[in-house]
Amino acid sequence: MILIKSQNEIAQMRQAGRIVAEFLEAIREKIRPGISTAELDAFAYAFITKRNARPAFKGYRGFPASLCTSINSEVVHGIPSPKRILKEGDIISIDVGAIHNGFVGDGAWTFPVGRVSDETQRLLDATEGALMAAIAQARVGKYLEDISGAVQDYAEARGYAVVREYVGHGVGRSMHEEPQIPNYRQGKRGPQLRPGMVLAIEPMVNQGVWQTRTLRDKWTVVTQDGKLSAHFEHTVAVTEGEPEILTRL
Ligand code: MG
Predict the structure, then answer these.
(1) Which of 15, 100, 133, 158 could bridge 154 with an S-S bond, Cβ 3.0-4.6 Å?
(2) In the chain, how many domains are there?
(3) What is the 8-class DSSP label of residue 248?
(4) Residues spanned by the domain of 214
(5) Residue range 144-187, pLDDT digits in tens
C-alpha cells in the first residue's frame, strides 16, 4: 500500500529534506583530492546531529556509517573508510538520509573530485538530467512507469545503461516504503500518481553494462565491467501542481 501524506506530514518532510539539501551543498566544499571518505562521514554525522536529526543509514540493516560513499565504478552502498582517499579525476557518489521528527529525507549526488575528463562529466550530466526528467513526470494522473521510462529514455539516448537491481522507493516515516521505483520500464504502467505520494527517485546510471556485483564486504555494489557509475536522488512530493523537490534548497 502506498501511504499518502497529509499537508502536515509533507511540511514535516520538508524539514527533513532541507537538512539533506543543506548537507549536499556543504559536502561539495569538502570534496577534494586528499580527503578520506571517513572524514566525509564524520562531517555528515556532526552536520546532521547538530540539526536535531539522525543519520538514517547508520545502523540500517547493520550499515556502519552515516553516508554511503561510492567512488568511480562503485554504484551504491560504499562504506566510508580512512583508507579511501579521494584523487583528482575521481567521482564520488554521496548518498545521505536524515530522520527529523520521525520523517526521512533521502538524497544523493555524484560529485567530481577536482577536474574530471569531459567523458566523465557527460555521465554526471546525463544522470542528473535523467533524474530531472523523471521528476517532471511526478504529477497527478501520470503512472509510476512514466517515471521509470523517463530515466531509461534519457540515459539510454545518451549511450548509458541504467542499473536494474536497485530502485527508488516511497519514503515517509520509513526510509523504504512502497512503491518500488525501477529506473526502467517493466511493461506495466503501475499505480497512478496521487497528491500526497512522496517518492525517492534515484537513477543509477552506468557508462558500460547495467549489471552489477556486490563486493565481499557485502555492501559495496560495483559495475560488473569496472566502468564508472553515477547516482543522483531527490525526495519528491506529488502535489496538485508542480512536483515539489524536498531535498533541494
Ligand atoms: Mg533512496
Answers:
(1) 133
(2) 1
(3) -
(4) 7-245
(5) 999 999 999 999 999 999 999 999 999 999 999 999 999 999 99
| 106 Cα: distance to centroid of ligand 1 (angstroms) | 6
Q: How far apart are CA 148 and CA 237, in angstroms?
A: 16
Within a domain: 156: yes
How remote is the CA of residue 116 from the centroid of ligand 1, in Å?
A: 26
96 in a domain, yes or no? yes
pLDDT in tens, 6-48: 999 999 999 999 999 999 999 999 999 999 999 999 999 999 9
Query: CATH code at 146?
Result: 3.90.230.10
Using the mean position of ligand 1's atoms as its centre, give its distance from the Cα of residue 157 in Å.
24
In a domain, 25, yes or no: yes
Distance (Å) from CA 133 to ligand 1 centroid: 17
Cell 497527478 sits on residue = 140
Give the rounded distance of the alpha carbon of 146 from its chain centre. Answer: 19
Distance (Å, whole) CA 117 – CA 139: 36
* Residues near 147 by beta carbon (within 8 Å), at least 6 away in sequence: 134, 137, 138, 168, 181, 199, 201
| pLDDT tens digit sequence for 110-140 | 999 999 999 999 999 999 999 999 999 999 9
Interval between CA 166 and ligand 1 midpoint (Å): 9
Q: What is the largest CA-CA distance in the chain?
A: 48
